[in-house]
Structure formats: C-alpha cells, structure tokens
Amino acid sequence: MHLRELLQHHHYRPKSSVPEWMLGYFKRRSISFANGETDIRTHVCWLQSRNFTIDLRLPVAAEQLAEKAWQDYSAAELRALGNYEGWVADSVWDGETLSWQNEMALQFHGRWQEPAYLKRVGNCMMEFCPSNAYVEDWRLQPSQPGPLVGLRLLDEKNLNTGEQHSRGGGLIICGDYAALVLARPEPMHAGHENALREKAEQAVGDAAALAQLFNFETSVASGSLAQGYTVELSTRPGRKGEALLPLDGFSLADNGRELTQRLSQQDGNTVERRFAIDTFEASCAYPQSTSTTTQATLWFERERETLCRYTQAHY
C-alpha cells in the first residue's frame, strides 16, 4: 500500500513530543564559535519528527565527491568522505533544552555532545550550547501544509536468503521534504575519535573494507507524497537526483504502531524493512511566523516604515 493511502485510513500521534515550533526541516544559516569565527558554507540539515531527529552535514557542492568504485578513491578523497556526517537519534525535550540519545551515525563518535537551548522567532531558530562554544542560526525551510511522518527503522530482512539485520535508521517526511537514514547492517566500533576518516584513509584500494565502512546513508530530499521525493544531499556519492525511496509496498501491523515495507532491489533480492511509528499525521502546518504579544504587534505596525525598509525572507 502507498503511504498516501495509509494516511487516509490511519492516524497516530504520540502523547509526548517536542514543541510544535520545532517540527519540520531546518537548514543552518550559520554557526559562530567562541573564537569569533563563523561558518556559513557547510550544508547542515535538521529534520525533526515528534521524538527523533535526522541530521546531515556536508561540505559545499564543489567539494562533494562524485561516485566511483571504492577502489578508485584516493586517500585524500577517502579522508574527505570520512568527514561527512549523518545521524539519527531520539530527541529528548525537557522544557528548556533538547538533547539526543541512542544515536546511530556514520561517524564512530558523536561530534556534537552538548544539549541545545533553543528559541524560535519567525522562521529563525537559534541554538545555544551550555558551554558557549558556539551558537547556530537555523532557518525553517518553507513548505506547504502536508504530512508529518516519522518512522524508526527497526530491522531489515532479505526475504530471498532469510538473512536478518538489526539495521537501525529512520524516515521523516515533513511536507515538501523528507530524509532517510539507513544505518550499517552490523555495528562497527572504533576506539578513538575521528576513526572513520583515519580508517578510510588507511583502506585506500580495499573495496571490501571501504564498502563496509561507508555502508551507511543519510539523504535529504524534496518533493511530495504524491510524486515522491528526490535526493538533493547525501552522504552516499551518486545518490543526488535519485528517488529517496519507493513510497509503496507498506503494510500496517495489527497493533497500529508498526509498518513493514517490501522492496525489490536491483540485485534481484527482496528486502522487508520493519518500522516503528513515531508519528503518522496526514497534515501538519509549517508556518514561517511565530506568535508574539499584542503590544509587540502594535509596536511593529507603528514602526513598520523603518523596520521593514529592507526586510525579505531568508532561508
């Protein structure tokens, strides 16, 4: 069954959730550090379901690597790939800060350890960390009201061979955008920070070892539930321009809290993925504005002539 059809007949919204103003797809406009330096170029994407986050961090387009056979990448290119970041994690909101738990990541260590103090005004969400090491400016990407779907991948089974993996990951659909994480089929452990880029560098020419190291995907896409979502950014070279994933082949478990999806792969195998439902909503608004006080609204209208002299939407 297609996800769109399922949403017509089934709805689920959890009792716990991050605030409504935190839902959707945010792109980072800037990060400023305590040393006075600012980065405005790194592609950083944050997609938020009600209780989990998908995050993607890549260099600028000109520095993103093209798809090659694994054995054809140079050591320098593999080190660059080893600095890509993508992860999925549970979101824990305590009313003041957002923190993340149970992270599954391309990297072997969590690069962002601090919780987030968050405040949103309009489409701008500011994030401060407790140590004051950095502050980040996030912008909610414009979207028509649309679905909010959050699915946590529990496992994947090859129906041809019977082989089953406790492969984690997740899918978030928020209006005009979607993101997918497929974690490694088997966990890999490394004993120190930045081990991925070092292991990748050392494995130059070893296709099997590199395929295992980089058997992890985080992709962000745009589109619609009706037409599908096309990948725009990904940790996997070559995924740009492809469909994020088929949106059909789903079935709902009797308990109403899980979905399974059967997929035919290019190698002739059929896999079945099992997802836990975080949220399953046919329509959610993603407004660019936030509320304020009556007094502040009157002030804004009174001073509009100068306040709005140069204003425009920034994403």
Q: Tell me the Rg in angstroms.
A: 21 Å
Tell me the structural class: mainly beta
Distance from N terminus to C terminus (CA atoms, Å) equals 35 Å
How many E-type strands?
18
How would you state the average pLDDT, rounded? 95
Low-pLDDT residue spans? none
- From the spread of the alpha carbons, the general shape counts as globular
Protein described:
The chain is mainly beta and 315 residues long. The protein is built from 6 helices and 18 strands. Strands 10, 11, 12, 13, 14, 15, 16, 17 and 18 form a 9-stranded antiparallel β-sheet that branches. An 8-stranded antiparallel barrel has the order 1-3-4-5-6-7-8-9.
Which features would summarize this protein structure in a list?
315 residues, mainly beta, eight-stranded antiparallel beta barrel, 6 helices, 13% helix, 41% strand
At a glance:
The protein is mostly beta strands. Helices cover 13% and strands 41% of the residues. The chain is globular.
What's the SSE blueprint?
Elements: H1 3-9, E1 24-33, E2 38-39, E3 43-48, E4 52-58, H2 75-81, E5 85-93, E6 97-105, E7 116-121, E8 124-128, E9 134-140, E10 146-158, E11 164-165, E12 169-174, E13 177-182, H3 195-202, H4 207-213, E14 217-224, E15 228-234, E16 250-252, E17 258-264, E18 270-284, H5 294-302, H6 304-307
Helix pairs in contact: 2-3
